[in-house]
Amino acid sequence: MTRNRMKYARLAALLAGIFLATTLAGCSGKPTAKGQITIGVSYQDLSNQFVIRLQNAIRAEAKKLNINLIELDGQGQSEKQIGHIENFVNRGVNAIILNPEDEYGSAPAVDIAVKHHVPIVVVNAVVSNLNEANAYVGSPDSVAGMMQAEYIAKLLKGEGNVVLIQGPYGHSAEVQRTKGIKMVLAKYPHIKIIAEQTANWDRAQAMNLMENWLSTGRTINAVISENDEMAMGALGAIEGSGIKRKIYVIGTDALPEALQDVADGKMVATVYQDADAQGSMAVKLAYDIIKGKKVQHLDYIPFQLVTKENVDKFLKMAKTK
Amino acid sequence: METPTDELKINENQTVAVMSPTDRRADNLRRAGRFFSKYGIYFALVILVAVLAVISPPFFTAANLIDILRQISVIGILAVGQTVVIITAGIDLSVGSILALSAVMAASFAHPGQYPLIVPLMVGLGAGLVCGALNGFLIAKSKLAPFIVTLGMMTAARGMALVYTSGRPVFNLSNAYDTIGTGYLAGIPLPVVIFILVILGGIFLLHYTRFGRYVYAVGGNELAAKVSGISTEKILIYVYILQGVLAGVAGVVLSSRVMSASPALGEGYELDAIAAAVIGGTSLMGGVGTITGTVVGALIIGVMNNGLDMLNVSSYWQQIVKGAIIVLAVLLDKKSKGKA
């Protein structure tokens, strides 16, 4: 019995040790100075590259304004984000920045903050109850989709077959981008969407999907992909298939790798979403609200279309980071 | 505990077989049933291919069939390892995450002009080996349930992949590395060649070596295996190491195929690998399963994905159809076995 108990005690001590060591290693471990402002940030998914860029911008701006950050990762689950906001409220943060995963699923998170009178700024993606939040900064995803579709329609001169590779169904960026793309293409009676399917933001899935579509033998003139990862997957499939006919591929996100593909003429364009401006603006808004200043409710940061003509500017920008 | 009843059942069946010499038709049926039981899942595949070939002619072309083989190669490599694991009455939920960790580590050594190709390959397989060995030791020595140990590894290895890359994909890989996933050998894509080698290796190991017999023995009845002098702990450790290394192979193949390694690579692949094994007749109770069955299971999944994409079935419906076909295939297999 005693031996067993000792064994358990040792095991428990080991577990506690691991836990302590990892939490210490995981956080930067800076103590909060008295009177320093603390902001809680809940991210939608820190394994997503765009969100990481957003995080870097938020961190940089917080450092500038001497703000202490508590950052939590929703790992793609809106119910986790609701827990985050409860946690922030209990810890008495001065304000909350929410980067919502799901338009409806993350909405209760805003309700909790409002109920406890903690200022909340929504960044990047939208929630259904945006009007309850103190402020929003982001770039409406439907506009990114519209820009993609407009450019493809221009290249196709209003005629051709398009395939559409979508994000995970129900993700707010997927819903909004699809809406934007279809709204524009509806204006062109001779452009047909001959197939549409999700590849869940994943390059390997998009590659398989595109191979399968190419195998059908139907003529595909353009690929509209709702992010760059999937666009590059489609590109890989096209290159592997040995098809010589030009197929226009367009993505969104302006990832460094995709920018290179645009520069090389493999991809016709991508859409740049300004993570830096969104992230720093979110922190500034939260700061102003804490200081009692009046802020604008909705701030839109414009998208930029990146084509071969202006890609150098973005490539340089990507390299300096 | 259950062995005596099992034996009883077998005896009953035998008596029934002996006692019905008059009814030849029943006998024929039974023989057909036995044949079907052995090849039930193969029929399911043939039917699926035939149906797709009829409703979508471009489906049944050499180019498309090769595409399918290439598309299932990664899941297939994982599934071969998973079959061996499941035969020992275990399960490995961590293969998708180990794949990602191996891929990002291998790719980080595969930038152009950096190291010879052998270095990233060894790093990738080594990462898989270490994770697999850790799984194996914990399962064999501490007697923890494989489900729990590999669930822990699934979370931890994914975390390590994210820490290692700071969440960013590794890209700009050397041509030599990319060739593994995109190249051909005598017209056959290299991932398929690797997959075939893994299949042959798996068949040899399971069916032609003492190790293979021990694997079945451990899964059939661990206690009996132990009593008869088999070092079950050693077998279990080797089995999980094998699966870890295969996850490393899969990681290298997948990252070279998509010419980049994202830490999110291979999410959910563990379930596809398990599904391939189970569709192919591997019993989750252990002791039963074949590599060829698993390959057919992987083919069914691959053919289904490819066919449904080509027919442009909406993703919403695809998920329902896939779920139904998986359950139906196993049901068909089980039914036919029950009759035999």
At the fold tier of CATH, the topology name of chain B is: ABC transporter involved in vitamin B12 uptake, BtuC
Report the top-level CATH class of the largest domain in chain A.
Alpha Beta
Low-pLDDT stretches of chain A are none
**CATH superfamily placement of the largest domain in chain A:** Response regulator
List keywords for this structure.
heterodimer, A: 321 residues, alpha/beta, Rossmann fold, 2 domains, 4-stranded parallel sheet, 11 helices, 48% helix, globular, B: 340 residues, mainly alpha, ABC transporter involved in vitamin B12 uptake, BtuC, 14 helices, 76% helix, disordered N terminus
In short:
Chain A is an alpha/beta fold and 321 residues long.
Give an account of the 3D structure.
- The complex is a heterodimer of chains A (321) and B (340).
- Chain A has 321 residues and is α/β, with parallel strands linked by helices.
- Chain A has two domains: 35-139 and 274-290, Rossmann fold; 142-272 and 309-318, Response regulator (Rossmann fold), CATH 3.40.50.2300.
- Chain A is built from eleven helices and twelve strands.
- Chain A has helices at residues 2-26, 49-64, 78-90, 107-115, 141-155, 172-185, 203-215, 228-241, 256-263, 275-290, 311-320; strands spanning 38-43, 68-73, 95-98, 120-123, 135-138, 160-166, 191-198, 222-225, 248-250, 270-272, 298-300, 304-306.
- In chain A, helix 2 (49-64) packs across helix 10 and helix 7 (203-215) crosses helix 8 (228-241).
- Chain A is globular, with a radius of gyration of 23 Å.
- The N and C termini of chain A lie far apart (59 Å).
- A two-stranded antiparallel sheet of chain B has the order 1-2.
- With 340 residues, chain B is mostly helical.
- Residues 1-19 of chain B have low confidence and may be disordered.
- Chain B has helices at 3-19, 24-55, 62-87, 95-108, 118-142, 146-165, 175-182, 190-208, 210-220, 222-227, 232-257, 269-279, 291-310, 315-339, and strands spanning 184-185, 188-189.
- The longest helix of chain B is centred in the first third of the chain and has 32 residues, at 24-55.
- At the A-B interface, strand 7, helix 7 and helix 8 of A face helix 3 and helix 13 of B.
